[in-house]
Amino acid sequence: MLLYVIRHGQTDYNREERLQGSRDIPLNDTGRGQATGNGRALAALPSLELPLGEFDWVASPLGRTRETMERVRSAAGLEPSDYRTDPLLVELSFGDWEGQTLVEVEAHSPQLIDQRNKGKWHFRPPGGSAESYAMLAERTAKYLDTIERPTICVAHGGVIRTLFHLIGKVDGDDAAVIDIPQDRILKTDGSTIGWI
Fold first, then answer.
1. For the chain, what is the domain count?
2. What cellular component terms from Gene Ontology apply here (predicted)?
3. Which residue in 34, 128, 165, 174 is a FRET match for 157, CA 20 to 30 A apart?
């Protein structure tokens, strides 16, 4: 397996440290610049294994990942819309907490924040659609099982954290707090994983 992964560019929710999860929040100007920069960086890689057009290009179906993908492809000299989406790559759902900051959540649910801090990997926020990182990792593993050829993927911070757990064997609670930049490219061959 050969997989390059890019996190979507910054949104206003990212800047404000709001839990956006599966909400469809657009990129802001900083995020658009990050996406374009990642496309240029990808095109400039000196040791790319095959031409960019021969990779499978796939993104989460949320708007911020699709816009990032289209800006990455355009900056790399490719047709912006020539990619596919996969719902397995949608970000972790924070359920009832989406749209709030952790400071705001702590003001009304300090006991839940305490539970989360004691074990973030298995913690599931309230709300029917909410997921834990462990649940997201199961979904990410299903996506990895579908990869049949070298792939370039645009996904979310939570999805990328689960890759560090699944491929890099990082402990779940440690993986759940890894800082995931929006202006870097991640590479994995299925056994090693790291930023390039």
1. 1
2. cytoplasm
3. 128
pLDDT at position 30, please? 98
Cα–Cα distance measured from residue 114 to residue 75, given in angstroms and rounded to the nearest whole number:
43
Q: Known binder of ligand: residue 146? A: no
One-letter identity of residue 55: F
Question: Is residue 37 a known part of a binding site?
Answer: no
* C-alpha to C-alpha distance for 193 and 4, rounded to whole angstroms: 10
Question: CATH code at 173?
Answer: 3.40.50.1240
Parallel, antiparallel, or unpaired: how do β-strands 185-188 and 151-155 relate?
A: unpaired
108 within 8 A of 83, measured Cβ to Cβ:
no
pLDDT of 128: 87
C-alpha to C-alpha distance for 53 and 78, rounded to whole angstroms: 7
**131 among known catalytic residues:** no
pLDDT over 90 at 144, yes or no: yes
Q: Is 91 a catalytic residue?
A: yes
Catalytic member of 91, 98, 131, 156: 91
Tokens coding 122: 């298995």
In the chain, % of residues over pLDDT 70: 100
pLDDT, tens only, 96-121: 999 999 999 999 999 999 999 999 99
Domain that holds residue 121: 3-195
